[in-house]
Structure formats: structure tokens, C-alpha cells
Amino acid sequence: MEVGKSVPAEDQGSITRQRSSKYSDPFFATTLERGLRVLAAFRPDDAWLSNSEISARTGMPRSSVSRLTNTLVQLGYLGLNESGSYRVGSQVLSVAYPLLARFKIRQIARPFMRDFAVRAGGNVSIAMSNDLNAIMLDVTRSDDTALPDYISDIGFSVPLYRTAIGRAILSLMSPEERAALHQRTLETAPQLADGKAEADQGVEDCKTDGFCFASSWRAETLAVAAPLLRTADGECLALVCAVPAFRTNENEMRNDVGPRLVSLAARIRALAGGA
């Protein structure tokens, strides 16, 4: 679960099962997990949340939430307004920075991603795997006021199974890793498991064509994604180009944008030296 992502009601049961298995670990710090759950309750479009709203989203008692939010405010991870509501604080960004700084490929790729985004009329992103999701490490976009306001930004996450970028990331994993991930999906997020067949096809497309296409996650957007590289410590990175559906079509994405994205990925890999 990521900062900025909330827990849909239908997912509460599966997440509870996941936590229950962790609670059996004597080294699992429950208080820390609850504090992080509070931070994960905030969505990108939230202005401020009250303790009651955070309680409803996390499933924790309001009294527990109040103690956690008080501590998080004192540490700078939450901000507090005069009405007693909270928003994510700047300290969260400082915690994320070492992760972003580790991926020097972002600086190498950015000018090429920017040029590609302008030509395609959409946005180009680098993403990495984060359990069952892909999370954006960098995003560039064309200067276009017609782009939808949901276009992703750094830290935005999407399901691996249901998106082009997720399937490109999966193509970098071994069959054993993909099998283990599917088992986790069945255990903790079974509502996503029905996307496995399309995900498997996307993996196969990446291996044969160098990229995959997807339109099912958001009807307003068409996307192609290409595997980028796997780092020395095993992180899987991929590249995606998403274009509003009113501007393109599947044929153009498959026959023009996709092959050009494969070439872009190869160029970035060569400049990055696999790092």
C-alpha cells in the first residue's frame, strides 16, 4: 500500500488477512505498522482529513488514530490545521528522497522522455515494482492543457496485472517470481487476480515485441510499456507512454509509439550502463 492510496471497502478483508499473518511474527512492530497505515490513508486529492475520516479508512479505533496522528504531527509527518484536521507533512518527502536519489537513471532518461512525451502528446514515466503495484519514479509530459488531470506523477501507483507498465515490469521477473507474486495476489488482493491472463499475454508481448499495449485500466487512456532494466540489487524498472484516447488509437500505439518506446528504452539502457 502506498502513501496517497486508500483502502477500498472491498479490500479490507484481504488486507486484514495479510496483517494477521504478519502479527504472528514476534519481530513485527504493530505500532509502526499502524502509523504507516495512517500515512497511507491519504489520497492525492485530499485536502485535510479528520481523525474520524482516517479511522474509517484504516479500520482503526478513533482513539488509536488520535494518538498516532498526534505523534506524526510532532515528528513532521502530518500537518495540523485549526479545525483539527490533518494533511501529509513535508517530512514524508524527505524520507522518499534517498530512494529517488538512488536511481540516477532518472536524470539520464529525463530529457529523452521529455522529447518523446512531446512528440506522442502524452506522458512518459519510469516505474518500479512495489509488491502488487508499479510505482512511478519519474514522469515527464508534454506542455498540453488538454491532458486529463489524472495523469500520473512521482509516487503514483497502479496495479501490476492491469496496466501496461505493470506487465512490462512483470516481464523482467523470473517465472518463479511471477508465480510467487500471483500467490500473494490470491491471498491479499484476490479482486486483482482475474487480470492474470492479460498480464501473462503482456509479458509474452514484451518478450517477443519488446513492449506491450493496454487500454483496460483507464478507458480514457491508451498506453504502451517496455521493460527497461533490472538493477544489480534486483529492482525491476520499466518505461511507459500513456496518451489520451481522443488523440490516438490502438493501431498507432502498437505500430508507431510502441516500437519507438523500445528504441528509447534501449538508448537509456546504453547510457545508464545497466545501473
Automatic annotation (TrEMBL):
GO molecular function, one term: DNA-binding transcription factor activity
Organism in which the protein naturally occurs: Sphingobium indicum
Coiled-coil region: none
Protein name: IclR family transcriptional regulator
UniProt keyword Transcription, yes or no: yes
Record key words, sorted: DNA-binding, Transcription, Transcription regulation
Residues in IclR-ED domain copies: 91-274
PROSITE patterns in UniProt: HTH_ICLR, ICLR_ED
GO biological process, one term: negative regulation of DNA-templated transcription
Any Pfam family hit: HTH_IclR
Superkingdom of the organism of origin: Bacteria
Residues of the HTH iclR-type domain: 29-90
PANTHER family per UniProt: HELIX-TURN-HELIX TRANSCRIPTIONAL REGULATOR, ICLR FAMILY (PTHR30136), TRANSCRIPTIONAL REGULATORY PROTEIN (PTHR30136:SF33)
Phylogenetic classification of the source organism: Bacteria, Pseudomonadati, Pseudomonadota, Alphaproteobacteria, Sphingomonadales
